[in-house]
Write a structure and sequence with these properties.
The protein is mainly α. The chain contains five helices and no strands. Helix 1 (2-20) runs antiparallel to helix 2 (25-44) and helix 3 runs antiparallel to helix 4. The protein is elongated.
Amino acid sequence: MAAWGTFATGLGLLLAPLALGYSSAGAILRDVSAGMLVCVASLAALQWAGARIVLGVAALGLLHSGWRTGDIRSAAAELVAGVLVLALALLPRRRRVPPLATPQRVEEARSA
């Protein structure tokens, strides 16, 4: 499922400063905040389709900041995460299964 792949990408972006050893505090703050945004938006996309727009904007922001940063490790993490998030946000959603019929819903359907 694309949402869980996007969530994993956000976690990877959160942990990238620890794994790659960034040299500037600005790069650390940027990637941790972007990783949190991607994680929250990917979980929101499970219930709300409009959250995929937030993921697309976050991906474009990651691509933009990846090209403009001076830290090569931060740039690599942001570019890879941006491409992954953008690709996963553009995947079509799987159709959701309708909720189970409860006696109340059956009565509402009969009366309509």
